[in-house]
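Revision sheet: structure tokens.
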Amino acid sequence: MARPVLRTALCDLLGVEYPFLLAGMGPVAGGIVGPVATAELAAAVSNGGGLGVIGGSGYGPDRLREEINKVRGLTDRPFGVDLLLPSNYMGEAAKKPPPADPRELVPDEVRDGLKAILAD
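Predicted:
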């Protein structure tokens, strides 16, 4: 008897087998044993059929690019990057309207193949 498979529209949108998403845990993720290996954990979830996610908050652009490349080296499956984007802008940035597409805020090198899902 075949085992029933949980498949949703989210699976199709993200290109994953199961609708399981890892919460993005950036450099603040840690605990008694030390920091979580975010790239390795995200890749493991992606390799298992879910959507691995690394937390991008707290990383500078170079370090975030390094984490993204680490995940790409560990899996060929889809994965995500959780970015916290401020809803208000300070100083000079406050005079400019926010971009219609949040991908405009992401460096070109990171943007390759990027899909954006906004959550308020």
